[in-house]
């Protein structure tokens, strides 16, 4: 599998360097320069975020930093002496960050690199049993291509390679496997380290229904190596979501924008394959007073399924992000 993905990386590189010379002509560079700044359609400035991938061919530098903590989640811990159980609250905290650079090669193609990471800050006994991920870093590289653009909408598609390094705790699957050899999610090791590699293709869209309103959406699918409890398995993954934003600066000349979004992901952040989707919802407030810079504060709610007796972890997250266009 890795050999095929590496061949794809080579092909992607050849595509970049085989772009027609005219693509980098003076006229093309003028078009890119003319479009420098916040992404726009028909004079409307779109409010982007770290939640929904942007479909716009721009040159930008962006980053985000966030913190997540668990809401009240009761975990039934079985006693070893009898069949009764104790209910304890799972206390889980995560910090996450990302850094991305995207470069517009032409007015219809851009290439990007992205670094991101998630780390657990603190746990109690219950959270150790149900939260699989201890630390995870990920590196993405890909290309974005414009498919078509209209006055009020545009569509694009991207190809990317994703490589990550993960450490996973498997306390509950390990103990349960010792007590019950028929348990389907048993693990032979308490701690595992993985370095999965996968490829993804997505489709992105932007639509401006009104001078102040804007909509972003995307759908992605991928195939490659994914963590399943204590082993790597090759399988398909998918993700889709959308956001709606209102920019007060368009009509009222107030440099503030608001947004709401949702996302469904078949790959759980706890790196456990549960055959259920992770649900994430977002509220956003952003500063829109500059043509080349966006600063936003985002509040997220996550519902993550686990393999522990169908318990779902509920997280409340807050993040600060910015993007500079040039």
Task: Report the count of strand segments.
Answer: 17
Q: What's the overall geometry? A: elongated
List the strand order in the largest sheet. 3-6-7-8-9-11-12-13-14-15-16-17
Give me the number of helical elements.
4
Biggest sheet character:
12 strands, antiparallel, barrel
Radius of gyration: 22 Å
Could you estimate the helical fraction of the residues in percent? 10-25%
Q: What's the layout of helices and strands?
A:
Layout: H1 2-17, H2 26-34, E1 40-41, E2 44-45, E3 60-70, E4 74-78, E5 85-89, E6 92-104, E7 109-123, H3 125-130, E8 133-149, E9 153-169, H4 171-179, E10 191-194, E11 197-207, E12 213-228, E13 231-247, E14 256-265, E15 278-287, E16 293-305, E17 312-325
Antiparallel strand pairs: 1-2, 3-6, 3-17, 4-5, 6-7, 7-8, 8-9, 9-10, 9-11, 11-12, 12-13, 13-14, 14-15, 15-16, 16-17
């Amino acid at each position: 599998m890795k050999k095929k993905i590496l061949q794809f990386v080579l092909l992607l590189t050849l595509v970049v360097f085989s772009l027609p010379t005219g693509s980098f002509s003076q006229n093309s560079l003028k078009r890119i320069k003319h479009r420098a700044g916040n992404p726009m359609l028909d004079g409307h400035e779109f409010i982007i975020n770290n939640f929904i991938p942007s479909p716009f061919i721009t040159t930008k530098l962006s980053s985000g930093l966030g913190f997540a903590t668990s809401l009240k989640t009761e975990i039934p811990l079985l006693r070893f002496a009898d069949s009764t159980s104790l209910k304890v609250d799972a206390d889980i905290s995560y910090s996450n960050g990302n850094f991305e650079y995207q470069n517009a090669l032409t007015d219809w193609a851009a290439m990007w690199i992205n670094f991101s990471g998630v780390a657990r800050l603190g746990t109690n006994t219950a959270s150790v049993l149900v939260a699989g991920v201890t630390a995870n870093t990920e590196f993405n590289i890909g290309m974005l291509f414009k498919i078509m653009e209209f006055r009020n909408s545009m569509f694009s598609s991207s190809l990317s390679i994703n490589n990550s390094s993960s450490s996973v705790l498997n306390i509950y699957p390990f103990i349960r496997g010792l007590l019950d050899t028929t348990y389907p999610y048993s693990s032979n090791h308490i701690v595992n380290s993985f370095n999965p590699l996968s490829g993804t293709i997505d489709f992105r869209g932007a639509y401006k229904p009104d001078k102040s309103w804007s909509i972003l959406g995307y759908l992605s699918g991928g195939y490659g190596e994914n963590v399943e409890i204590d082993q790597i398995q090759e399988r398909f993954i998918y993700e889709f979501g959308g956001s709606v934003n209102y920019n007060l600066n368009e009509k009222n000349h107030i440099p503030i924008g608001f947004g709401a979004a949702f996302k469904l992901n078949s790959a759980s952040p706890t790196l456990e394959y549960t055959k259920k989707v992770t649900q994430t919802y977002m509220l956003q407030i952003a500063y829109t007073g500059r043509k080349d810079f966006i600063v936003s504060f985002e509040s997220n709610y996550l519902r993550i399924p686990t393999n522990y007796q169908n318990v779902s972890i509920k997280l409340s997250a807050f993040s600060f992000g910015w993007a500079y266009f040039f």
